[in-house]
Amino acid sequence: MIDRLTVLTAAESAALRDAVHALRPHWTARGREPASFFTLGAPSYLDLAGNPDGGPYQTRADASRPLLWEAFGELYARLAKLLEQHLGAPAEYPGHLALPGFHVWLAPAVFTRPKAPVHFDMQYRAFDWPEGTDLTRLLSFTLPLRLPAAGGGLNVWDATYDHFRHAVAKGWAESAADLKRFHRHQYVPYTEGEMVMHSGHTLHQVAPSPRVEPDDERLTLQGHGVWCDGRWLLYW
User: Fold this and answer.
1) Is residue 96 helix, strand or coil?
2) Residue 32 pLDDT
3) Is residue 228 a part of any domain in this protein?
């Protein structure tokens, strides 16, 4: 259900955190002002999925791609190579999709209660995929660069999207969060520099931190993958 892959040393994670902050003028504020949650890049779950008019996804994806390549090209190359080795198939970044990007929660935005949405990653349904795409083979990944002093992680349940569809058909559930009553919960702690991967069709939630210090921060690289004609297409 959950897989791990070491990508960065502690020093490399810290250097990349500084590089993300150097690009703060390019962060997009999310939520109410004064914002403490930001993205760097174009997350399809925010900028495309749920936007009938298409939203700002393509504009932001095109604008952020050269910026992110210049600043983090070495990271993207390493990530693709490690995934190729780990998954046993090529991994590439399609030129028309957003590169994996960054979530930045500054201290006021770090959760201390389990209030983040309980969900499946369904944003892939907002795209038109090429022939040969298998939407039953999916990947979601998180690479923490900095975590609160008290730690951070992911809540997961042993429930899949197929379980949810079955429960809805039987009238047992109306939302993904309803499955929490019927399935076992697991807390998956994060480690800076270690990527956590799952299918995206595993029920999950951003886990709260036990406490938050004034200089805390939760900064992660986020991305997804779709299997297409013998290779993984990586995007956000």
Assistant:
1) coil
2) 80
3) no
What's the confidence (pLDDT) of residue 218?
Answer: 98
Asked if residue 191 is part of any domain, the answer here is yes
Taking 70 as the pLDDT cut, the residues of the chain under it are 52
Gap between the Cα atoms of 179 and 182, Å rounded: 5
Task: Say how many Å lie between the first and final Cα of the chain, rounded.
Answer: 21
pLDDT value, residue 51: 80
H helices of the chain, where? 10-22, 44-47, 57-87, 161-170
- Domain limits at 78? 3-222
In a domain, 20, yes or no: yes
Distances (CA, A) of 223 to 55, 168, 171, 182, 235: 19, 28, 33, 28, 6
Question: Is 236 within the bounds of a domain?
Answer: no
Report the relative pairing of strands 202-207 and 153-160 from DSSP bridges: antiparallel
